[in-house]
Amino acid sequence: MPSPPEPGPGAPYGANAHGVICAYRFDATGVAQALGDERLPPVPGEGAGFVWLHINLSHAGSLETLRRAGALDEDLLGAMQQGSRATRIERLGESLFAVVNDVTFDFSFDPDDIATLWVHVRPGCVLTARRQPLRSIDRLRMAVKRGERLGSPVALLDHLLQDQADELQVIVRRTADRIDDIEDELLKGRHARHAAEVAHLRRVLVRLQRLLAPEPGALARMLSHPPGWVTDDDRAQLQRASEEFSLVLRDAAALQERIKLMQDETAARQAEENNRSLFTLTVVTVLALPINLVSGLLGMNVGGIPLADHGHGFWIMLALITVLTLLAAMLVLRQVRGPRD
User: Which residue ranges traverse the bilayer (predicted)?
Assistant: First the structure.
């Protein structure tokens, strides 16, 4: 199979002079053939099969490429420029528009490392556009290079969604492994050092679930009233992709519940330690009360201090302080043991 077009001279890494990262034509059997610069069709989708163009929106020539592809309309531009980044699949006239959020290549459990891929699907043509490299689209490119067959534009979209679900599953699995380690540390009483990391993991899962989970309402509306060229097999494929996402999101929700329980347990243990420290401080204060009172009275340097001229006055006062301290200790112990009896 021919290789995808190489970047042109002076073009940024990963795109040619037209802003196209890769271009493939799939025949009626789903076999892909890479298209060079000179073979980029002005109207994709001519004849049997379909064409896939993957575009880098950071490139200056990307808008011209979209114009040549016949996809530079107001609906598409408005959907790409609106503020909502939630993953969804919706119908735009007789085409499908999808917003797919995925993690970047340098993702390291940072919820800010999320980038957006816009997908425009029409009969005979699939356009994907992004500003940052994404893992799921790169996995799709590798699968096409290996010779995987995609029989329709919706099959390519379904493959992309499945890759995203797989990537989310990997993140959930890695998070679960880390939570298992933190949970073991928590059971050993070493909870203080992981409080910040647990809160960070919970924030990551909440952000991933909010951005990567497809909107069920948009998908249901699209599946109930799809464009005329979408077949029953295509609808079944998208439905299966949605169910796979539901399973992954269920695992993510279970992890969030585990993290919440861990945070509650950590807070309870921290409160118990604070109460124990406060109790210890109170006991010390009570036991030191007799000696503080006696030393304060004897240190006023006024007339009439008892035993000032007695030869054994120091030892008598020491014995008195010891007796008072023992009485205070007995009262404290009685108060501690009282609720337990």
Answer: 278-300, 312-333
What's the DSSP call for residue 77? H
What are the counts of helices (DSSP H) followed by strands (DSSP E) for the chain? Answer: 8, 7
Give me the residue label for tokens 């379909």. 50
Q: Indicate whether this model's pTM tops 0.85.
A: no
The count of residues in the chain is 341
What pairs with residue 129 in β-bridges?
55, 118
What's the rounded Cα separation, in Å, for the pair 189 and 34?
58
Q: Please write down the HEC assignment for all residues of 80-126.
A: HHCCCCCCEEEEECCEEEEEEEEEECCCCCCCCCEEEEEEEEECCEE
Summarize the confidence of residues 311-317 as an average pLDDT.
81
Q: Where are the domains of the chain?
A: 20-268, 279-337
State residue 191's pLDDT score: 65
Distances (CA, A) of 7 to 41, 101, 155: 18, 25, 27
pLDDT score recorded for residue 7: 40
Among the ranges given (277-286, 293-302, 310-319), the one the predictor scored with the smallest mean pLDDT: 293-302
CA dihedral (325, 326, 331, 332) in degrees, to 10, reads: 70
What is the phi-psi region of residue 102: left when phi exceeds 0, alpha when psi lies from -120 to 50, beta otherwise? Answer: beta
Measured CA to CA, the distance from residue 242 to residue 36 in angstroms comes to 34
Over its C-alpha atoms, the chain yields an Rg (Å, rounded) of: 35
Residue 106 has pLDDT above 70, yes or no: no
Residue 120 confidence (pLDDT): 85
The encoded tokens of residue 267 equal 């807070």
Report the C-alpha gap between 32 and 29 in whole angstroms: 9
The CATH code of the domain at 20-268 is: 3.30.460.20
CATH 3.40.1360 fits 279-337, yes or no: no
**pLDDT tier at 267 (50, 70, 90 boundaries)?**
confident
DSSP codes, 284-337: HHHHHHHHHHHHHHHTT--TT-TTSS-TTHHHHHHHHHHHHHHHHHHHHHHHHH
